[in-house]
Each structure stands twice: as C-alpha cells, then as structure tokens.
Amino acid sequence: MADDELLKLSAELGVALKQRGWMLALAESCTGGMAAQYITAIAGSSAWFDAGFVTYSNQAKTRMLGIEADIIKTAGAVSEQTAIQMARGALAHSNAHIAAAITGIAGPDGGSAEKPVGTVCFAWATADGGIASTTGHFSGNREAVRRQSVKTVFERLLSLTLPPDL
Question: Of these four, 57, 101, 129, 165, which has the most CB atoms within 10 Å of its CB?
Fold first, then answer.
C-alpha cells in the first residue's frame, strides 16, 4: 500500500469532515501516530483535526484516555472493549465530534495463539453516543500491519462522515 493511497483517503476524509462541520480525534496504540501523520500531511487539516493521542503503554491508556484498568486487565489491551474506551476517551479529552481508536499487535513479536501478530482492534465513537467496533487480522510485516490498520480506520471514518446526500 503506497503512501499515496493513505494520503488520498486522508484528504477525502478531510472534505467529508469539513462538510459536516466535524472535528476528529484519534487514539492510537500500535500505529504510533501514523494515522495522525497522514491527517496532518494534508494542508488545512487543522480545520477538521482536533487531537491525536498516542497511548502505547497501558498506563498511558488509563492516564491520558481514562480507560478503566480493569478492562485492560480482563479483556486485554488488544480488545474491542479497550478500543471502545480509547475512542470514547479521545472524545472526552478533545473537542471532536468523532473519534477513532486503534490497538493491536503489529509484530514481529507479542502475539499469542488467541491474538496472533496482525490482530488489531478498532473503535469509532461519535459525540452523540454512537459506537462501532471491529477486529481485523492483517498479514505482512510490522509496517504492512500498521498501514492496513490506518487504511481501515480512514475507510470506516469516511463511511461514517459522508453526508447522506452524497
């Protein structure tokens, strides 16, 4: 996946968010700010991007996003439950109307039989209380897993932000 594809998706997302008058926040773990990097590569993104939280450690997730430590302890840092709390935390700690969260195992180490390398959990939350989550299983090296994760987040954000008349 070329950088051009992620830049194109980011630019399309910016247009959709601006049409809605919405601001975006991101909570990233395994992508380490890659989604925010592609967003801020678009000139004028300050009109639609409010904040990005890179919460790589579990302690950062609880401290910066307000995630309940019990959720991480019981469901794991790589879980839809944690991703949902990350997205909600990004909304609560920003002026955004919509937020997305990414948490996963990009590799090459860290996987298990239950959650192999390439397992990534996502969540999207809107200020009106809407929430969606999913888990993806990606192949390839660390960079490929991270890029596929960013693509997934951008594509779902686009589907959630495109005005219904388009």
Answer: 101
